[in-house]
């Protein structure tokens, strides 16, 4: 194999690195659904916004299901063929998403988009290291290091690599959110999909021009693992359905909620039964759960993504107090990019100085605590756009620190055979289960607090209150002058009187929940400081 593989011999190495990094961009623009456009999409299709939240989780489920098949796929793939076929499939799936209004079909497309996207990300990731450094990165998934010093060298390299990798990924994702919001604002939300289709076709052309023909060894995937994979997908999908639609459907008063619970329980139980009785190596290695750091990683990711769900208050506050639209919210989210860069720099400095993991974790939660504390003191009815920038910077700085270091930390002293299982577990917890739990917790929490404070604030708004009565009479009279009948005019007057109450109730509820989130972050930082670690554990 030539030194310039997988490129043609005439391709300079810096240009090859640039091509590989460019191939990342269209992948993270293709998300199946775009939450930055969720209001436009839901309004255009006449459906609930929760359905698009569920579609987003379907894409995350697809992302996680690549990792159980990761090792045989990477060993047998044809680099060039995978790129051409994968980008073509993504282009086709985005066309379907642009023209279809069938929600089950969109859920399937979102799942496949997530699956193919991660397969292509792995294809690129496992080409960059051999191409740049001559290191076969697949070996770390196949063989354990022979000595403790080599094991530490690999662990340290992962601790350095993860902040850089996640910073690039999160920056591309945030930029894609802004672009999709801009396209929806200037044109239509469907045009976002057509933009991604064009990017996929451009990526195919780039691969065909620069990549040489690659040998293929054949990808040998065990068909016995497919039932296990299907059961896991069904169980996770049913769980996400319950968590996303629970508030809207009043939880288990709805038949669909009870059916989803039964499907999740049966699917999960059948998977455990198959894993216990299969003669071959199971889809997910149960021995992974015997490692203490695995539980540390799961716990930190669940706590992180729970706190991360509080970011919806930033955009809600922006729209409520400044009358900003989706495009303005997307502009605020662009400040996440310098926040991620700051988090990457902070992580690398900590790794360079060999700071203990407990202090890095505490620092990450402290940054997120600072973001929520800042918002706690800035909630007001007449807000300012600039007040949402500092908490965005602080939040994403802390999130990137926790994101990157936790992934590397949980792989410490982990045998190579468990690496793929840990990556599946990490993506399933971090991108599927924990966000679904966090969104559900904060949505229900906000609803209950809004109801509580709206009742309290509206207590004095009665007909005998002079200010309320005067405003009611003025709006009612104006409605009648515009030609409305008595009932319509009274309804408009009631909305005008109680509208400020609802707005104030929402702001007070968010302030209350944000204050509680501050304590959750403080508890997370304290917990990370008190957890038992190996003596002298360093990055």
Which properties best describe this structure?
539 residues, MFS transporter, mainly alpha, globular
Shape: globular
Rounded to an integer in angstroms, the radius of gyration calculated over CA atoms is: 25 Å
Q: Please describe the biggest sheet, giving its number of strands, its sense, and whether it closes into a barrel.
A: none
How many H/I helical runs? 19
Low-confidence stretches: none
- The helix/strand class is mainly alpha
Cα distance spanning the termini: 35 Å
Relative strand content: under 5%
In helices, the fraction of residues equals over 70%
Account of the protein in words:
By secondary structure, the chain is mainly α. The protein has 19 helices and no strands. The chain has helices at 13-29, 38-45, 49-64, 70-76, 79-99, 103-133, 148-186, 190-210, 226-245, 255-277, 292-308, 312-322, 326-334, 336-352, 357-376, 389-409, 419-457, 466-481, 486-530. The two termini are 35 Å apart. The relative contact order is 0.11. Keywords: Membrane, Transmembrane, Transmembrane helix, Transport. InterPro entries: MFS_trans_sf. This is MFS transporter.
Secondary structure topology:
Layout: H1 13-29, H2 38-45, H3 49-64, H4 70-76, H5 79-99, H6 103-133, H7 148-186, H8 190-210, H9 226-245, H10 255-277, H11 292-308, H12 312-322, H13 326-334, H14 336-352, H15 357-376, H16 389-409, H17 419-457, H18 466-481, H19 486-530
Helix pairs in contact: 1-6, 1-7, 1-8, 2-3, 3-6, 3-9, 3-17, 5-6, 5-8, 7-13, 7-14, 7-16, 9-10, 9-17, 11-16, 11-17, 14-16, 15-16, 15-19, 17-19, 18-19
